[in-house]
Amino acid sequence: MKKLLILFIAAGLITSGCRKIEVDGGTTTVNPGTGSENTILEGRITENRTLKAQYTYKLRGLVYVTNGAVLTIEPGTKIVGESNRNGGLVITRSAKISADGTADKPIVFTSEAATPQRGDWAGLVLLGNAPTNASFNGQAGVGEIEGGINNSDGLGLYGGTNPADNSGVLRYVRVEYAGYAFLPDKEVNGITFGGVGNQTIVDYVQVSYANDDSFEWFGGTVNCKHLISTRALDDDFDSDNGFSGKVQFGIVQRDSAVADVSNSEAFESDNDANGSSLTPQTSAIFSNITALGPKATLANIGNSKFLGGVQIRRNSSISLYNSIVAGWPQGLIIDATKGVATDLNITSANPSLWVQNTIIAGCPQPVVYSASPTAPTGATQASILNWFNSAANGNAILANVADLGLTAAFNYTNPDFNPSSAASPAAGGASFTSSRLSGLVNVAYKGACAVGDTWWKGWTKF
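RESULT FIELD:
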């Protein structure tokens, strides 16, 4: 009888429509006879695991990779956030992600909705052990990442003392429709980096339709290349709490009708929320960025909540080289009104804030200066404009976006960000003589692309 009962039970398993197998970090639903598998990822992934390209994986709530585990994602894999569950993927300190796609098989994180909308899922969060000027519960150098990520086990904490920390690989990756506001000014972004170290690889990554920022760095030293921000709600590149990495080759494409109530920019940068003198100071270097705003022409108005292309404030000392800022109400904003005066980073004997070999085009107010109550002697709107226009800095202001000679930069559905010919002001004039640009690729052109460039094509989606 026992043998017969076992046979009946086995037969029932074989003929049933599906069965569930409990696995670490989720529930795998297997559909016998079809060869298909939908994997629900939930809770914690505590051991090395590989997500395979033939399956679609679903994030149910916040999924944490912990315990030093490595989450490997095969090229071409699709991961979706479950609707109405704020699904998201959090790579905690000392864990790693290996999302190493290819140009013809990018890895895609997106919404599961048939008609996706920004904010359909939470986003991708990488947390590491690199330095930051944040503090948490009185512990300096450790921060709590925004967005309700942290829990009683501290899985949302970031920061440490290892600038060469390694959180893994993001290469040929798209992140779409992510982000949500947990609390005002406490949002989850398309991709959030907290204390991520410089042994991490971030290259060829597009964030589209983010419900807050596309990319935000809280401290850390990670270097990034070939980043694209498409139609974000708030900011495209946001840097805080001592981020000191280098970012080269980036494209910002905005939707002129969509901006955030907090005022949207391509760059927003703070040393910290209070503009303190805490170290490490936010001092990231951005080079070869093409940051396109809502104004294809001066007559375009767009959403009134757009502020400007680059806002450097609250004692940040980020620098911008060999770049294009085009089609914003304001181009470059030096805001020294809160905390330690940001203008000191320009006017001191050893300046740490530089803007060089950069073009501002089609911005009604190209350079805007908001002085601190204790502004440095001689620091005025005119003097900051003169600093930008000085021959030593090699910058230029063009009246119209069309003066750049880009091919079809403001075509939303079929854009072309390349200079249309060698006669374009963007096709030459870059400089890498500054020692601060060591480690970057020495190219001749300003902005993200050369004439005929293809790096942003094929693996992307506009």
